[in-house]
Design brief:
The chain is an alpha/beta fold and 302 residues long. Helices cover 24% and strands 27% of the residues. The strands form four sheets. Strands 1, 2, 3, 4, 5, 6 and 17 form a seven-stranded mixed sheet that branches. The longest helix is centred in the C-terminal third of the chain and has 20 residues.
């Protein structure tokens, strides 16, 4: 039986792994896709303390991972699809296999929403994407559209200007609602002709030919594009907790007490998956450390 299993590998998970492993706790981290979580998809992080010139999400994630491994944490690929709790034993289903552990830390964060329009699923990975830093380079010299109007849409549109042929076109369902500093940056790119903004623009369909995107149907008209990057909000990655007994709020985020323990003893959480979290990298890292210390106390008393 393992001592601690951490589900997820973003800043909260890796920070917890650093603290737990350093305290001598046998720690295993499971990640189903890419280590680093959503942070690894961020081109530049300018507000993480200690990096006055900023740092890329990939680099920050790499450093945190190496630090966790230096203290003995084991980072493994594996998709957790179920959690069952019986007394002091917690059983996770990882890639179809049962894994038993004394404590669990849930740090799965969030995932992107879909638009739910025709063509979105059909052309996923074939012109439809949800991460500019992951897939933007495939569209060197091509026409690119961004669907969304909040912070992430503006940030990703700015990043995509380095690849696009002509201006990156932003299609916002209502208005662009990004923070002031991003609005100012956006206006600079608009003035330079590198971004075009379309507000009150309802995306109705993603169209294509021969297995790849060729256009975006907006307000009844088809706009020719090669790539569509969708930023339509987020939802908590908590689907696998259905029927687990972990208390969720009405949006699917996890509830916790002051020690970051969930409604189930020995099951803790940290980061963006927590109801009421600030969705900031530094806050997630701090919660990871707090949860690790609470887990250590739990293990010592059980």
């Amino acid at each position: 039986m393992k001592e601690l299993v951490i589900v997820g590998s973003g800043p909260a998970a890796l920070s917890a792994a650093i603290y737990a492993a350093r305290d001598g706790v046998d720690t295993t981290v499971y990640e189903k896709t890419n280590f680093g979580g959503q942070v690894a998809t961020i081109d530049q992080i300018d507000n993480f303390p200690g990096f006055p010139e900023g740092i890329s999400g990939v680099e920050l994630s790499r450093r945190m991972r190496e630090q966790a491994e230096r203290f003995g944490a084991k980072l493994e690929y594996g998709e957790v699809t179920k959690l069952a709790v019986g007394g002091d034993k917690k059983t996770l289903t990882v890639d179809g296999e049962k894994v038993e552990t004394k404590a669990v830390l849930l740090a799965t964060g969030w995932t992107y929403n879909k638009l739910g329009v025709p063509g979105e699923d059909e052309y996923k990975g074939k012109g439809v994407h949800y991460c500019a830093t992951c897939d933007g380079a495939f569209y060197e010299g091509k026409k690119i559209a961004v669907v969304g109007g909040a912070n992430s849409a503006v940030q990703e549109a700015v990043f995509l200007t380095r690849f696009a042929a002509g201006p990156v076109e932003i299609f916002a369902r209502s208005q662009v609602r990004a923070e002031k500093i991003l609005q100012e940056k956006l206006q600079d790119y608009v003035a330079k002709g590198e971004i075009t903004v379309h507000e009150q623009a309802v995306t109705e369909e993603i169209v294509g030919e021969n297995g790849h995107v060729t256009g975006l149907k907006v307000n009844g008209e088809v706009v020719p594009v090669d790539g569509v990057f969708i930023f339509a909000g987020i939802h908590p990655a908590s689907e696998f907790l259905k029927d687990s007994g972990v208390e969720l709020d009405k949006f699917g985020y996890i509830q916790a007490d002051d020690s970051l323990q969930t409604s189930l003893p020995g099951v803790f959480l940290a980061g963006d998956i927590r109801a009421g979290s600030t969705k900031q990298v530094v806050a997630a890292a701090g919660e990871g450390a707090t949860a690790a210390r609470a887990i250590n106390r739990y293990l010592m008393s059980n």
